[in-house]
Structure formats: structure tokens, C-alpha cells
Design brief:
Length: 126
């Protein structure tokens, strides 16, 4: 029997390998609402540096969860969108957002706020 290329303790590790970290889930979450240009993402995530945003976008593209669309025009135009594979993360990302809302309320009551608070579809429609 051939040795496996990679061994995971749980499949959660494989998921985190692709979307883990501080910024990737946030980027992916925003892309569940449609295509975004680099500056749009930067505006939605003001605390991320441009260097980090570029790095995270490249890594997500390498994993096949986002697509970089480059338009042949002047000035250059680039958009990012979820691939079909990336869309399979939507339910999980939206559930993470709902859980985060509950956690914020539980921990802080009315003493915390969420800047980007889009209306999420009901759990049945995801």
C-alpha cells in the first residue's frame, strides 16, 4: 500500500489549511455577496494591509476557491469572485457570521458593534 501524501488528524485541519487565519474567512465572506475589486475589499476590511490582502487573495486563488478576473483595459481592472468550489463555503461562512453575532451579544451585550453587518439569508435558504 502506498503511503499517503498528507495525513490529517481531522478533516477540520484540511478546511483550516485552505481558509484558516484572520483574513481569509473575512475575504471569502464578503465575496459571498458578489464580485469585488481589490479596493472594494480593502474598504470592507480597513485594518488589512494591501500586502496582506494581495497575499491572501493569491493563496485563495491557488487553492481554487476564488477566481481573479483581469480585464484587458486601461487603467487595468481586476475583480475577484468565488469559484463553484468556493461557493461551497457559503453556508459555513454565513453560519460563522451568525455564531459571531450571538457570541458578541453574549459576551458584550450592547457594548460592542459590528461594522459590516449584511443581511444574511435565513439558514434554510443558504
Amino acid at each position: 500500500m502506498k503511503e499517503p501524501d498528507k495525513i490529517y488528524n481531522t478533516a477540520v485541519e484540511a478546511t483550516l489549511e485552505v481558509i484558516g487565519g484572520k483574513w481569509k474567512p473575512v475575504i471569502l465572506f464578503h465575496l459571498t455577496f458578489g464580485k469585488k475589486r481589490n479596493n472594494e475589499l480593502k474598504g470592507l476590511i480597513p485594518t488589512i494591509t494591501q500586502k496582506m490582502l494581495t497575499q491572501q487573495l493569491r493563496e485563495l486563488e491557488e487553492e481554487g476557491v476564488i477566481l481573479r478576473i483581469s480585464y484587458n483595459q486601461v487603467p487595468p481592472k481586476v475583480e475577484y469572485e468565488l469559484t463553484d468550489y468556493g461557493w461551497s463555503l457559503k453556508e459555513m461562512l454565513h453560519l460563522m457570521c451568525r455564531w459571531g453575532d450571538t457570541h458578541i451579544e453574549r459576551k458584550y451585550g450592547g457594548r460592542a458593534t459590528v461594522l459590516a453587518n449584511p443581511q444574511l439569508e435565513s439558514a434554510h435558504n443558504i
